């Protein structure tokens, strides 16, 4: 039975946050230990990932059941939209911190160390000459090659921008209740998302094995993998979310007037597109 006009659905007590907190904590702790060479980092990370995945699937199941059973009304829809907007804002701040680190390293740290201000450079790292991309003054003899914009990053840019077009097509189709077009557009978007991830995995293998570009390659290597790696994780999450939305479309969960689950996933995917454009310009091109 649907909610009465003016009422607001208050969900029952959920046990999933209790599972989610230790799962995420184990995942992050394991990843940190792995980066620092600890032996128990990978098992802890895998355990945390499994717990987090189970929590996510089960919690999504509950929310989907509440939605299709008619428990949500217009007020709940507004809350979902506000929540998603704040979530994307937090993601903007997340990537803003890493872009800020890149900006600081390139615009301030390198000129300071390279003698732009002689009064201070002699005390920071005397007689060093740096230009971006650089691993840093302590690794000037490190043999590595910076990752250029051609060919793989450019190909991935085309793929991701194309996925934004196919998703927009699906979005317009669902508003007009063209179910077949929605399914085709979503399927293409999901396929392009996983294709992007596959090419990025190959790019990492190539950078690590052929270019000797590693996470410990000073400031350039760490920023390269942090920025592109976290973005890659967001692409995988976005593609999986859109896959869930595709399955829900096939089950008939959305209508032309009620499809915010679809819209939330679309907002997230377009955000991922925009972040990649910034990465492509400031990490690969400039």
CATH superfamily of the largest domain: Cytochrome c oxidase, subunit III, four-helix bundle
Query: SS-based structural class?
Result: mainly alpha
User: Mean of the pLDDT scores?
Assistant: 86
Q: What is the name of the CATH architecture of the largest domain?
A: Up-down Bundle
Using only C-alpha atoms, the radius of gyration works out to 23 Å
Number of strands: 0
Parts with pLDDT < 50 across at least 5 consecutive residues: none
For the termini, the CA-CA separation is 57 Å
How is the biggest beta sheet arranged?
Answer: none
Task: Please tell me about this protein's structure.
This protein is mainly α and 286 residues long. It folds into two domains: 1-72, Helix Hairpins (Orthogonal Bundle); 76-285, Four Helix Bundle (Hemerythrin (Met), subunit A) (Up-down Bundle), CATH 1.20.120.80. Helices cover 73% and strands 0% of the residues. It has helices at 16-35, 41-68, 74-113, 118-125, 152-175, 179-209, 218-250, 260-285. Helix 3 (74-113) packs parallel to helix 8. The longest helix has 40 residues, at 74-113. The protein is elongated, with a radius of gyration of 23 Å. The termini are far apart. The mean pLDDT is 86.
